[in-house]
Automatic annotation (TrEMBL):
The name this protein goes by in its record: Galactosylgalactosylxylosylprotein 3-beta-glucuronosyltransferase
Pfam families according to UniProt: Glyco_transf_43
Active site positions: 260
Keywords: Glycoprotein, Golgi apparatus, Manganese, Membrane, Metal-binding, Signal-anchor, Transferase, Transmembrane, Transmembrane helix
Assigned protein family: Belongs to the glycosyltransferase 43 family.
Amino acid sequence: MIRELKAQLLTNGLSVPDTSNLPTIFVITPTYARPNQLAELNRLRNVLLHIPQVWWLLVEDREEKSELVKNFLTHSGVPHTHLHQPTPPEWKVKDKSPRWTKPRGVLQRNAALDWLRKNADPHLPAVVYFADDDNSYSIELFQEVFAEWHLIGTRASSRSLFFITVVSRCHRCLTMRWTSQVSVWPVGLVGGVMVERPLCLCRQGVEPDQARPMVTGWLVGWKPERPFPTDMAGFAVNLRLLLDNPDASFSLESEIGFMETDFLSRIVTKEELEPKAECCTKNTHSRYIHHLAVVLVWHMNAVNPNLKDEVRLRQLGRQTDIGIDV
Ligand code: UGA
Ligand code: MN
């Protein structure tokens, strides 16, 4: 299908960028069965479908893979690997307890890291991102869409070549795909504040390649004493770093709220962090990228759907979802 579309574009004198040599983005997503699981997974899938060179590692928190997720992935159109790793019952959040009483998604993320260490090509330029299934992700978090439109929609001309050069330079600056070690960015609606964010030092008026933006501190409300006070959604790691540090993994024993910090402390220092999204909007190329929102990912928690009539119908043997994936 995509090959056909590319051929049609070429016939009309339009070229499609070759994305095969871009670094791969491995997206690791823990997921568990609940009424809105498929709704959440579809929202993430719809974003990933826009992203070239992406590989989705979807890890079910279950004894075995479910047919529901298997069917979903098979028809998703996103290159993927389907894994499963159950959380032992004693580490599961009890029904009536608040969700933060137990860490979530820990063993599932570790299972995906194990898979990468066994299966990923160590020579492949790649970055790893932990994307929970319930957040809101913008396409620009992964990919500079403006560049894509431009490359796809414009015939080559000296003006567009200039434009491509500028935007591709910003690529390196803006998106997680160009992470040398660990990149960080703001996350909206998390930790009791509108946005938790790294504070950055950016030198104005210099080429992004020459002036590396630095993280000088963080602006957060909750537990600001954490060495890396970021949510899981706020960072990406170069695959190489994870292969070089085979013990880097998430721990069930981390103090509440310290899971990200404990993981990052093993692989990176504050000085090495590469800020994205925020700093780069202030550099000399800002007139090309000012349309980008500063916040590119939002931490969300779904309200449980009202299923009171489903419960009643179930008692009458008339549940609504027999024979249909919901
Ligand atoms: C916050 C962070 O955003 C998470 O990345 C972090 O794992 C979590 O805190 C924590 O400290 O454990 P929050 O929104 O409260 O997350 O957590 P959930 O969205 O409920 O769970 C995070 C991920 O784990 C989701 O992808 C979810 O599908 C998965 N999960 C949750 C499981 O695989 N099994 C579960 O029993 C619960
Ligand atoms: Mn969540």
